[in-house]
Amino acid sequence: MTRSDTHRTIDAVWRIESAKLIAGLARIVRDVGVAEELAQDALVAALEQWPDSGVPRKPGAWLMATAKHRAIDQLRRSKLFERKQEQLGHEIEAQQELAEPLLDAAIDEDIGDDLLRLVFISCHPVLSTEARVALTLRLLGGLTTEEIARAFLVPPSTIAQRIVRAKRTLAEAHVPFEVPGEHERAARLSSVLEVIYLIFNEGYSASAGDDWMRPVLCEDALRLGRILAELVPNEPEVHGLVALMEIQASRSAARVGPSGEPILLLDQDRSRWDRILIHRGLAALERAEKLGDALGPYALQAAIAACHARARSADETDWVRIAALYDALMQLAPSPVVALNGAVAVAMAFGPAAGLELVDALTSEPLLKTYHLLPSVRGDLLAKLGNFCEARTEFERAAALTRNARERDLLLGRANACAVKIKEQGACETNNAN
Amino acid sequence: MRFMVLVKANKDSEAGILPKTELLEAMGKYNEELVKAGVMLAGEGLHASSKGARVKFSGNKRTVIDGPFSETKELIAGFWIFQVKSKEEAIEWVKRAPFDGESELEIRQVFEASDFGPELTPELREAEERLVKRMAENAKQ
After folding, report:
1. Which of the residue ranges A83-97, A170-184, A331-345 would you say has the lowest mean pLDDT?
2. Which ipTM value was assigned to this complex?
């Protein structure tokens, strides 16, 4: 094995082991920042030693043993150890734990709880959303600062700072390394789900830059979701989120055209949808449905996505059911964006005029003022009703609002198509032409 | 990226002899570990080749040959599909599989959309467009 082979192997081992390593260490040292540094030290030791010694047979156990030795050294050197009486009890306990014989099994047994604690602390409400995202990808996803920076198109120093600050905030706030109690569990879990879905969406509909998708982030989010689903198998919304991500990801290959342009759901070549992911998504949705009486917001969105996944062609889509699911979603998590999507479903189920009526009611909604999909949808419905003059204006407005270059091209293309129709029909009335 | 991990057949798997309880248990634990890590997308064990068949193509001719097939080492006894970041990660996971005795696993990368996007499209697209045009012209005649 060459040196660079070994380095690639170490990268792989790190990806598999780092979260477990950090989680296990955090339980012992009670500080996520310190735990991560210890894990990093162990990684450096591996990079120094493995190229010569070879990769150990149990690389995870090797890393844990190395990190624990460092932890013991640090504890011994720590002046706190002698000074602080009140901490003595805990540190002796920690020492005993560190001195435990290293049984691989023992490390693996409790690791689920430790990982769950690490999930909750990475998504803790004392942190900003950006910090939660960065910390989650770093501590649980095993991504390097550079990888996170590349995924979010920001300089690595920005991410590094975000992570340092996040770790400091957690330490200063004395956030305990524990799974939240019953009374705050629901709120804390929803913060975790939000972070994972945010990562997924950043990958799925890249909000900035020339790429329509950054699939790597989708894969990381999916992996985090799948891990979480096994850590808390009785939480229906976790399965709901996983189902939603699996089904959305199943369309990745079909939603980008040959020159990188986006292809909208109904125009997609369904034979390119990923059957494995659809199958997994439907199974996850079924798990969510079996656990809860009423579906939560993620499961409802997954159920909507599932309607599309089950339809063999766009014409076979059960729009009446989708409209009803959006209605249920509106009751549970009302938002102008959900209302807009609901209006689209109504248009498909009951005709463009019925949809347009609902969309028009949203045009005064302040939250949608800069949302490109509102004029985009309105343009689409107007075009279907034959009002190409107003439709063109709406597509142009939508193109001016989107930050995504590919999407802008698509919208301008639709505006041009309207212009062609207008020419065929003659001209627009003066109040529509601008 | 996605990898398919192919488990090669051996005398026992071809004879329809199920693995011992300990190995089955260990395999169950291994699968659980894969699922918990969010790595395993799918995986199945396959019956002996005696329950399968081959279809040979030669021009227009199709010949069906029923199993079993003799070249045991080239047969497949099961597979996993992994979602991982690199070939090395797939290898690391495979190394943890609880096989004992003589076994061989093969790791193959699965083609994904991004693997053919840019290389395949321009020419193929052009070819397809030519075909569509020709079909339209033929229809007019």
Report:
1. A83-97
2. 0.79
